[in-house]
Specification:
Layout: H1 2-12, H2 15-41, E1 49-53, H3 78-90, E2 95-99, H4 109-115, E3 120-125, H5 132-141, E4 144-149, H6 154-161, H7 165-178, E5 184-189, H8 194-197, H9 200-209, E6 213-218, H10 234-250, E7 254-257, E8 275-278, E9 284-285, E10 292-293, H11 299-302, H12 304-309, H13 312-322, H14 329-332, H15 334-343, E11 347-348, H16 354-359, H17 379-387, H18 389-392
Parallel strand pairs: 1-2, 1-8, 2-3, 3-4, 4-5, 5-6, 6-7
Antiparallel strand pairs: 8-9, 10-11
GO molecular function: catalytic activity; iron-sulfur cluster binding; metal ion binding
Organism: Acanthopleuribacter pedis
Protein name: Radical SAM protein
């Protein structure tokens, strides 16, 4: 697998794209991890990467999405974006995941990449905006890796994301491959598509399309319409873990998960301060599905380091999770989570009543599987989880 993947990287990527991925993502990512570990020893809290939601607007209406799409449109200001990134640079953090809504609907998106060409950006997108002009611009920039959301083959994907989206995405992938970009696929595993998305056929489809990584998530029933029928049962999660390890040894593509350490133990990036979520209004939130904050980027005259370290809410969230699970408190302890948010007086930035939504979730299994942990059995992934992807919050 490693030799074939190395060959793909050498032959399928444009030279400037390959160099910037290796330097800005790989090398600087490792430096970010080491700085993060040094801060932990000094009881300083600042993540090596950030989720940054540029807007809450979107052109799709996907089932089970937690982002409001019919209320007031919100777009992050250039000032807030620059403040987040410049604060990160001071802490040796040069990697940012941009999301929404749909980040390509933010009119200043390309200028972010240009202004901060010493940083690396992952853009989580629905894949509807890959015109020839846009893809050529991304190739010229070189410091952007698109992560395209696809949730199964055509029938499964279009059931969640809308009729015709699969074909449009596939056409966009062809353009990304033609221009030799470094890009990946984001797939949410659900109770309905797990067998399909963890198959050899599914992985091979994206290798042929030119994707260099496939990033798996587990469905969470959050949002105004949570669609609990998509939730995975415990045995499905265990089976997903087993299949993931087998697929990793077979295919020349990085298969990333956000859930398990090299030892196979469950993990929550927000609970260890690896990555927080910045909302379109500058709200500093524990993670993307939790749109609650007590602080904003603008606090302390844009001194994000001081704001995060002084936040009882963000520090308290870490301890709250650690006292209950190594997995996801949204799934396992939703009512206690709602009480924690309420007790800290956190403001809801969802434009809905997201607190009531969490309070109404039925507790379920998450990826925390005590006594059923399955360690990584391939040295490549053990190394990546401890050195590179660990700091990126991917753990895959």
């Amino acid at each position: 697998m490693l030799a074939r993947f190395t060959y793909r990287m050498a032959t399928e990527l444009a030279p400037n794209v390959a160099f910037k991925a290796a330097y800005l993502y790989g090398f600087k990512g490792m430096k970010a991890i080491h700085s993060y570990k040094r801060r932990l020893k000094n009881d300083e809290l600042y993540p090596p990467f950030m989720f940054v939601a540029l807007t809450n607007t979107c052109n799709l209406r996907c089932q089970g999405c937690w982002v409001e799409k019919v209320g007031k449109a919100r777009h992050m200001t250039p000032e807030d974006i620059d403040a987040v990134i410049e604060n990160g640079k001071k802490q040796n953090a040069y990697y940012y995941t941009l999301l929404g809504g749909e980040p390509f609907l933010h009119k200043n998106l390309m200028s972010i990449f240009e202004r901060h060409n010493d940083c690396y950006f992952q853009v989580i997108t629905n894949g509807m905006f890959f015109s020839e002009e846009t893809v050529q611009k991304l190739r010229d920039l070189g410091n952007v890796t698109p992560l395209i959301s696809i949730d199964g083959m055509q029938d499964q994907n279009d059931m969640r994301r809308g009729e015709g989206t699969f074909k449009t995405i596939m056409d966009g992938l062809d353009r990304l491959k033609k221009h030799k970009l470094f890009f990946g696929i984001a797939t949410t595993a659900t109770g309905k598509n797990m067998e399909e998305v963890m198959s050899d056929e599914y992985v091979n489809m994206f290798i042929e399309k030119g994707a260099m990584y496939l990033w798996y998530y587990i469905y969470r029933p959050v949002g105004e319409e949570p669609h609990p029928e998509y939730c995975m049962q415990k045995q499905q999660i265990v089976d997903m873990r087993r299949r993931l390890l087998k697929l990793r040894r077979k295919h020349p593509i990085l298969l990333i998960d956000t859930y398990w350490t090299a030892e196979g133990e469950a993990f929550c990036p927000a609970a260890t301060g690896l990555g927080f979520h910045i909302g379109p209004e500058g709200s500093i939130e524990p993670c993307p599905p939790l749109s609650f904050a007590t602080n904003k980027v603008q606090d302390n005259r844009d001194d994000l380091f001081s704001t995060i370290n002084e936040s009882e809410y963000l520090r308290g969230f870490q301890q709250f999770v650690k006292n209950r699970t190594k997995g996801c408190v949204i799934l396992e302890h939703p009512q206690e989570l709602a009480s924690f948010i309420r007790d800290h007086g956190a403001v809801d930035y969802s434009t809905r009543d997201a607190l009531s939504e969490i309070d109404s979730i039925s507790p379920r299994h998450s990826h925390h599987l005590p006594d059923e942990e399955i360690p990584e059995d391939y040295w490549v992934y053990r190394f990546l989880k401890k050195q590179v992807f660990f700091g990126m919050g991917a753990l895959g």
